[in-house]
Amino acid sequence: MNGGPLSGIRVLDLSRVLAAPYATMALGELGAEVIKVERPPDGDETRQWSPPFIGTESTYFLAINRNKRSIALDFENVEDRALVEELAVGWADVIVENFKPGTLERWGLGLDRLRQANARLVTATVRGYPVGDNRPGYDFVIQAGGGLMSITGPVTGEPSKVGVAVADILAGLFLVAGIEAALVRRERTGRGNHVDVSLWESQLAALTTVVQGYLSTGTPPQRWGNAHAQLMPYQTFKTQEGWMAIGVGNNQQFAQLCQVVGHEEWSQDARFRTNPERVAHRTELESLLASVFMQKSTQYWSERLESQGIPHAPLRTVPEALDFAQEAGHDLIGQVAHETLGGLAQIRMPWRFADSETGMGLAPPTLDQHRDEVMALVRTLRQNRKDENDRHE
Question: Within the chain, where are the H helices?
Fold first, then answer.
């Protein structure tokens, strides 16, 4: 893909699983050229994470490895390690990895050494925990140990994880931001840098308002189910045949909501006039609203809430949400041409630039699919190096 804001940036992706591959896919969607190095014979372990499969391809792997070329190289093999080093020093602007600490050094591919050989190189590491804490960290464990599960789930039920690997996704996005910042700095200084991101720190940083509330008051946060600790009404309500989420963010919206439900007097009730008062009397207000919403259908309430500009949405399944996006004209789903699967539908990254192209580009690769292309590139690097040496003799 050409024309993206990162067009011309070259990324050597030595990572696997989720957080780092998600980051490199994002860089590719922004226009960077990405080469993914996978270890034979199985490659990235997410190629085996199933179900579901499409043919022989894991949908998990397909979801996070678009816009990359794949070559299988064995790091235990001297010649293959030499190929990795040639790509790192002679081709790459960015290297992304998530090996256990000390692994790359054991192979002679330590990031410090590579940056010494290429002063403009930006290197990036994703790990489970901060530098010095070498425990393995999977998303589920991070959600549990990092406080997220303690505030997620029903008020009186058991704690719950989020339905996607949110700690991994957050770490991947933080990594993208860090890499882009290092590239901007490189333009000013001419020198690369190292970016280090952990799932643990990403998870805690993303708790933002919850952490601030605790640091400021000393009161431990609690689970609120589908309600909000600081806003009311800001939760789900059951309708005649389904569920609806309603988000009231200010007093004017609350007055409009009272109009919609036919109880304008509630907006003047001393218990509900302001948001702090509504939060203090959330049980009474929730009971009043719940009894009203139960009387009509989701569609009925949606039409009336829409007419007043009150933030709301019916509870949709994932298929329903995708159908709604298509009906609304949201350009979220595209097609890529996969080597073995043919046309493959995938969801786009959400960036939209006024004067730059972004696109889905290359389909997720089969293992070692681009060996010939990458080896041709390496031969070019070698020839260029030879020509440079000849000029200086």
Answer: 19-29, 59-63, 78-90, 103-106, 111-117, 139-145, 166-189, 199-205, 208-217, 251-260, 275-280, 282-293, 298-307, 318-327, 371-391
**What is the distance between the alpha carbons of residues 63 and 276, in angstroms, rounded to a whole number?**
43
Query: Model pTM?
Result: 0.93
Nearest to 333 by CA among 312, 311, 318: 318
The pLDDT tens digits of the residues spanning 138-181 come to 999 999 999 999 999 999 989 999 999 999 999 999 999 999 99
CA distance 159 to 150: 6
Q: Give the integer Cα–Cα distance in Å for 357 and 2.
A: 7
Residue with tokens 């998990």: 60
Please give the Cα distance from 132 to 34 (Å, whole number).
29
Unique residue bearing structure tokens 């804490």: 133
Please indicate whether residue 168 is annotated as part of the active site: yes
Domains located in the chain, CATH noted: 10-206+330-391 (3.40.50.10540), 234-315 (3.30.1540.10)
The alpha-carbon radius of gyration of the chain (Å, integer) is 26
Residue 358's pLDDT band, with cuts at 50, 70 and 90, is confident
Asked if pLDDT for residue 331 goes beyond 90, the answer is: no
Active-site residue among 93, 168, 368, 390?
Answer: 168
